[in-house]
Structure to design on (404 residues):
């Protein structure tokens, strides 16, 4: 379960509470005497109240290559439609009425939006059948099935399976920053693509400085080393070498200036 | 089912050849044919997926060495639950086989056997895939 679901708290008998609250909100929503503001508020509250239903429906479509959040979003459109169209006189529960609409909206999303290339509906449905049959046969056989076994299970020819597999390649596109839908939040493809190392520009400078450092007198080299590699303060260096801190400061400044001048002369 | 049996009946000696322009744009034709043949030889879906990748790598290696305007010659030998694929091209002066390359590592991992044959005038990559369902030999 996604961690970001504060409203999805499983209290004792939440169904009854939700049902009562839902009925009450529908009365408010449909009240002809209510102000527009009150009706909008009731509609809004109804949508929020039933969001867990959308998440429940969307969860059934996980692992099909579309991000869970996107499915919740299109499912919510189905929920809003259901709220607007629900007939309280019918005597059915709202969730009974809304579920097919929500699932229908998600399925339509897969059919219309999911494909990178417009693929005939026959092939789209075949691909879904192949996916389902593959999963089932893999379970039953304890190994990956052959196209012939899938064909027999669906009731079509090997020819059609091969065709269906070809078409599923049209479905393989993935947004660069789409994360893996799993719970541990695997990094997106974009995260896996390398960038120029931030320190790359420093390489050249470091390489040019190296011979200059080699050419420094022993004491100056030691001071630089203690200051910048061992991270010692000027006073500590002064104690270590046996000169005053002021002298260390002067030597450091002079050495750095020399290095900079030689680098610039080189460039 | 009957169509599978037709292929199976003659599979013991069946050879298939495909000649394509040596251009990566045609690699998908090679992949599709390979998958189609493997499907009829009762390779499993996983095997077919591996085979697609292996053949792509082989084709990429061969295309790198192809002379301008050369053909990509693909031969398939089917039988005994094995599919042998040889992808070759004419290459006047092919590079030494690079057994450190990523492509070769992938190919060698996926295929049961794989080899590169580089000689003046020709460069070819051979790979053998065995169906997971074939009886162990």
């Amino acid at each position: 379960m996604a961690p970001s679901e504060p409203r999805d708290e499983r209290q004792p008998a939440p169904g009854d509470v939700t049902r009562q609250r839902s009925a009450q909100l529908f009365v408010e929503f449909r009240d002809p005497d209510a102000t527009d503001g009150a009706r909008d508020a009731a509609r809004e509250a109804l949508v929020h109240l039933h969001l867990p239903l959308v998440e429940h429906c969307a969860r059934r479509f996980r692992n099909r290559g579309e991000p869970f959040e996107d499915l919740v979003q299109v499912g919510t459109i189905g929920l809003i439609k259901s709220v607007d169209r629900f007939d309280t006189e019918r005597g059915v529960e709202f969730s009974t009425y809304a579920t097919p609409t929500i699932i229908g909206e998600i399925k339509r999303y897969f059919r219309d939006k999911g494909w990178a290339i417009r693929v005939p509906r026959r092939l789209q449905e075949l691909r879904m059948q192949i996916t389902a049959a593959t999963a089932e046969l893999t379970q039953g056989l304890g190994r990956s099935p052959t196209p012939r076994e899938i064909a027999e299970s669906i009731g079509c020819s090997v020819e059609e399976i091969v065709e269906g597999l070809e078409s599923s390649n049209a479905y393989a596109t993935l947004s660069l920053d789409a994360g893996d839908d799993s719970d541990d939040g695997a990094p997106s493809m974009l995260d896996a693509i390398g960038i120029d190392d931030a320190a790359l520009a420093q390489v050249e400078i470091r390489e040019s400085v190296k011979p200059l450092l080699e050419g420094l007198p022993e004491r100056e080299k030691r001071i630089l080393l203690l200051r910048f590699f061992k991270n010692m303060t000027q006073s500590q260096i002064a104690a270590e070498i046996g000169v005053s801190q002021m002298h260390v400061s002067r030597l450091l400044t002079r050495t750095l200036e020399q290095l900079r001048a030689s680098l610039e002369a080189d460039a | 089912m009957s169509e599978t049996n037709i292929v199976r009946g003659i599979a013991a000696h069946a050879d298939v050849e495909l000649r394509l322009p040596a251009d990566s744009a045609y690699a998908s034709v090679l992949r599709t044919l390979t998958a189609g043949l493997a499907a009829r030889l009762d390779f499993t879906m996983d095997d077919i997926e591996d085979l697609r990748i292996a053949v792509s790598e082989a084709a990429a290696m061969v295309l790198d060495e192809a002379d301008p305007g050369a053909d990509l010659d693909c031969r398939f030998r089917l039988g005994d639950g094995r599919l042998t694929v040889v992808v070759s091209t004419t290459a006047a002066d092919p590079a030494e086989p690079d057994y450190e390359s990523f492509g070769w590592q992938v190919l060698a991992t996926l295929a049961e056997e794989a080899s590169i044959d580089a000689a003046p005038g020709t460069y070819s990559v051979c790979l053998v895939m065995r169906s997971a369902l074939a009886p162990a030999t």
The two ends of chain B are 26 Å apart (CA to CA). The first strand of chain B starts at residue 15 and ends at 21. The interface with chain A takes residues 1, 3-4, 32, 35-36, 39-40, 42-48, 132-133 of chain B (CB under 8 Å).
